[in-house]
Amino acid sequence: MRNQELDWPELLKSLSTHATSQRAKNLCLEIDALASRDLAQTKSENIIYASEVSKDQHLPSLEILDQINISFERLTLKAVLDVKELVILRQFLNASLAIKELLWMTKNSWTNLMATQIADFKSQLSAINHVISLDGEINEDASSLLASLCEEKRRLAREISRTLDQIVARRKMEPLLQDKYVTNREGRMVIPVKSGSQHDVKGLIHDASQTKQTVFMEPEEVVPINNRLREVQIQIQEEIIRILRELSDYLARFKTEFTNADQALLECDFTLACAKFNSRISGSVAHFSKDGKINLIDLRHPLLALQGIKVIPNTVSLNHDRRILLLSGPNAGGKTILLKSIGMACQMARSGLPVAAGDGSTLPFFENLDPIIGDLQSVDQNLSSFSSHISRLTKATKFKGRETLLLIDEICGATDPEEGAALARSFIESFAKNEVYVVVTSHLGPLKENWPKEMPLEHGSLEFDNKTNRPTFQLLLGFPGRSLALSVAARLGVPNEIIERARNFLTPDSRKRTEELEEIESFKAHIIDLKKQIESDRDEAKKQKDQYSELVRKFREQRDRWLEKALQKAEKRIETLIEDARLDRLKNRTLSDIKAELPEIIRAKPSGQGLSRPQTIDEFKNQFKPGTPAYSTRLGRQVLVQGAPDGKGQVTVLADSMRVQLPWHTLSNVHAPTDEKPAPTIRRSSAAKATESFEEARELDLRGKRIDDALPLLEKWLDDSLRAGLDRLKIIHGFGTEQLKKAIRQYLSKSRYVAEWKAGDTNTGGDGITWVTLAD
Question: In the chain, what's the furthest Cα-to-Cα distance?
Answer without folding.
Answer: 141
